[in-house]
Specification:
heterodimer, A: OB fold (Dihydrolipoamide Acetyltransferase, E2P), Rossmann fold, 3 domains, B: alpha/beta, two-stranded antiparallel ribbon, 8 strands
């Protein structure tokens, strides 16, 4: 049985090449591994190895021929070894379809969103908790309920947390489950991710998300992509958490908001709560999720107190925004620390006769566009308040969504109210000038309402 | 033997820092291995190794051919020449208990772990029947069923991930060990040393395997590494090293047993350097101009792990007809997997959107 030797593709992009030189001639016996020809591509000269055994029959393409298309028969090998004859093709489940133009995949329409915040039963008392305490309580409750959950990070155990978010956890759960790591973000993010692949439920604390840039390869390449790349075999239920965004007077390297970075990555869930009730309810949901979650906190908000329903199991739905304040004239979309500024701005605007609606996105991926668009339909004006840079921001994304899906409802352009587009400066006056504040939100709201 | 006075600060209750162990010696396991020698395989065991190595060789040759025909796309890194490493090491693992993780040159490890060649080849051709439904490709294959955790395309990433798997073994107390493979190129990545530190600090049950095939893509170890004796690379972290002939399947298996005994006994991580050689380029598109044809031929002729095993089988008096039969069966099996991989349908278009997230939000 003869075997056709075809012009091989020698790189991912090669379509044709030059058959530079034959190293065998008709009638030669060759075995697997013998170099039979040299082929030139645009990048290099490559040796073409035989993987079969036999006698070189006819050489079809002469040495020196340029532009030989991949797949062209360049020579025929007379197989004389019974072993080399191909076995009968195995029965395949279905014949391969002809390479017809690929049908356009329909993106599945999301299930109608029924997830709503749980009803707080009549008569439930409220407790005042700081965001810091709410996060700690959420982790402790989930650790009590599931012994696969553990916390690791720098200073999370004996020091009780660099920002005291893990305070008391070591005492209750011991050093097997509350683990101090060396200062080695790339390494421990990888170990946490591997532990999640191995069936545990890690919570990895970054002292700040600024340091997670050292570890971002594992967050994105290892945690976010593996479920897809494995065809759904390998889950990675992990929570990466820590403070994000600008703190105070710590300079450019410690003051970045990574929300837009992570929210751009398919395969991740990204949560950025504002108040204590959301921090607790969403942290519990994040720990229970089968997906990798990036949970962005804010140092300046840790110490603020809010009411939290005093319930046994306060869990909130991921991917659902919250209307913090109803209004009819303009919608202010925000998340994390920006929500506090937006609420402050709404108060000021109310004094000037503008009734603002404030939406806290809470989850940045998947984004609850439905709530934003419903609000746009009502107010016909949207501005986005974001403590972060303007370019390629969550604000940019919301503006795009409003334009693509709510264009007819818009009575004014969507405006982005963000930090200035500069690395955050240290000097107090410059820092103040660079960061978003309530007065800028007020000004933008008035502008889209064509007032002032 | 160097002894060392502890000079760390207070250690927490759970930290069993290796710094207090005065008995650390880089060569402790190597000495034991040299005393114990290679694995004493009986004829059946050696035949099995031969068969597994030959399956990898023939599979990879066919993969190279399918690549040439344009049926396999992108990057494709072949394991030809290194077969004894995966076969020798994985034969020593306890199935259902231990875990394995490696980099992008992963086909051989999967075959050595008993994963069906058909679903591997179908993944290479990007078909629905592939082990990752055609969505992973050559570098991204997994089998949770076989505790094979990939298949990772970022050089060195599998090292901390493997330590995470070992962490999970220890956390659960299931007695498992993780075997984490990486190359001499990955051995220069920073995250590898971050991992060595934590693995040793926490005494994780992990065997780090450096497959030293002499070239990080086109750069020889001598041109890229200040310390080319890779088994010494754990010294700073008090991880014992082993220096093994990775072209000899029985040496590999013998060394694996020494390492596993140490790790299972709670001794913490071990670093094994497997000295091996890849015959083909780094990937299919590598013309391999950084080394001479003579160098490759010399390895093939004198050190080939499969020929070596075959010669020993023949010397032991195993019937050559039986070897021929094995060869024929493997050719048929590989042919069948190639046909399966060529004729299986491409993924359904709906697969584009599946498996991004597990849950619906």
């Amino acid at each position: 049985m003869s075997i056709e030797l075809k012009m091989p593709a020698l790189s991912p992009t090669m379509e044709e090449g030059t058959l530079a030189k034959w190293l065998v001639k008709e009638g030669d016996d060759i075995s697997p591994g013998d170099i039979i020809a040299e082929i030139e591509t645009d990048k290099a000269t490559m040796e073409f190895e035989s993987i079969d055994e036999g006698k070189v029959g006819k050489i079809m393409i002469e040495a020196g021929t340029e532009g030989v298309k991949v797949g062209t028969v360049i020579a025929v090998l007379e197989g004389d070894d019974a072993d080399a004859s191909a076995p009968p093709p195995a029965a395949a489940p279905e014949p391969a379809s002809e390479p017809a133009p690929a049908p356009k995949a329909e993106k599945p329409k999301g299930e109608p969103k029924v997830a709503r915040d749980p009803q707080v039963p009549e008569g439930t008392s409220m407790v005042s908790l700081t965001v810091r305490e709410a996060l700690r309580d959420a982790m402790a409750e989930e650790m009590r309920a599931d012994d696969r959950v553990f916390v690791m990070g720098e200073e999370v155990a004996e020091y009780q947390g660099a920002y005291k978010v893990t305070q008391g956890l070591l005492d209750e759960f011991g050093s097997k489950r509350v683990i101090d790591t060396p200062i080695t973000e790339y390494g421990f993010a990888g170990i946490g991710t591997g532990a999640a692949m191995g069936g545990l439920r890690p919570i990895v604390e970054f002292m700040t998300f600024n340091f997670a840039m050292q570890a971002i390869d594992h967050i994105i390449n290892s945690a976010a992509k593996t479920n897809y790349m494995s065809g759904g075999q390998m889950r990675c239920p992990i929570v990466f958490r820590g403070p994000n965004g600008a703190a105070s007077r710590v300079g450019a390297q410690h003051s970045q908001n990574y929300g837009p970075w992570y929210a751009s990555v398919p395969g991740l869930v990204v949560i950025a709560p504002y108040d204590a009730a959301d921090a607790k309810g969403l942290m519990k949901a994040a720990i229970r999720s089968e997906d990798p979650v990036v949970f962005l906190e804010n140092e300046l908000v840790y110490g603020r107190s809010f009411d939290v329903p005093d319930m046994d199991d306060w869990v909130l739905p991921i991917g659902k925004a919250r209307i913090m304040r109803e209004g009819s004239d303009v919608t202010i979309v925000s998340y994390s620390i920006g929500v506090g500024l937006a609420l402050e701005a709404a108060e000021t605007l109310a004094g000037e006769g503008i009734d603002a609606e404030v939406i806290d996105l809470r989850t940045l991926r998947p984004l609850d566009t439905e709530t934003v668009l419903a609000s746009l339909k009502k107010t016909n004006r949207v501005i986005v308040a974001e403590e972060g840079w303007p370019t390629c921001s969550i604000a940019s994304e919301i503006a795009a969504v409003c334009m693509e899906q709510g264009f007819d409802d818009l009575d004014a352009p969507v405006l982005r109210v963000t930090d200035e587009d500069v690395p955050l400066p240290y000097a107090a006056n410059l820092e103040k000038a660079a960061l978003i504040d309530a007065s800028r939100i007020v000004a933008a709201a008035k502008k889209v309402c064509y007032r002032g | 033997m160097a002894t060392r006075k502890s000079k760390g600060g207070a250690t927490g209750a759970a930290v069993t820092a290796p710094t207090d162990n005065p008995d650390f010696a880089l060569r402790s396991l190597q000495d034991k291995f040299e005393k114990q020698g290679s694995f004493k395989a009986n004829d059946d065991e050696l035949l099995k190794f031969y068969e597994q190595m030959l399956l990898i060789r023939r599979f990879e040759e066919r993969a190279g051919q399918l690549y040439g025909l344009g049926l396999i796309g992108g990057f494709c890194h072949l394991y030809i020449g290194q077969e004894a490493v995966a076969v020798g090491l994985q034969s020593a693992l306890a199935e259902g208990k231990d875990s394995v993780i490696t980099g992008y040159r992963d086909h051989g490890h999967m075959l050595a772990y008993g994963i069906d060649p058909k679903v591997i080849m179908a993944e290479l051709t990007g078909r629905q029947a592939g082990i990752s439904k055609g969505k992973g490709g050559s570098m991204h294959m997994f089998s949770t069923e076989h505790a094979f955790y990939g298949g990772h395309g970022i050089v060195g990433a599998q090292v901390p991930l493997g330590a995470g798997l070992a962490f999970a073994h220890k956390y659960r107390g299931d007695g498992g060990v993780c075997m984490a493979y990486f190359g001499d190129g990955a051995a220069n990545q920073g995250q590898v040393y971050e991992t060595f530190n934590m693995a040793s600090l926490w005494q994780l049950p992990i065997i780090f395997v450096i497959e030293n095939n002499q070239y990080a893509m086109g750069t020889s170890t001598a041109r890229s590494s200040a310390e080319t004796e890779f088994h010494r690379r754990g010294t700073a972290f008090r991880i014992p090293g082993m220096d093994v002939d990775g072209m000899d399947v029985l040496a590999v298996r013998g060394a694996a047993q020494v390492a596993l005994e140490h790790v299972r006994g709670g001794g913490g991580p071990v670093l094994m350097e497997m000295n091996t050689y890849r015959y083909r380029g780094h990937s299919m598109s590598d013309p391999a101009k950084y080394r001479t044809r003579d160098e490759v031929n010399e390895m093939r002729e004198k050190r080939d792990p499969i020929e070596h095993a075959k010669a020993e089988l023949v010397a032991r008096g195993v019937d050559e007809a039986k070897l021929k039969e094995i060869e024929k069966a493997i050719r048929a099996q590989v042919g069948e997997s190639a046909d399966f991989a060529e004729s299986s349908p491409e993924p359904e278009m709906s697969e584009l959107y599946t498996d991004v997230l597990v849950e619906t939000y």
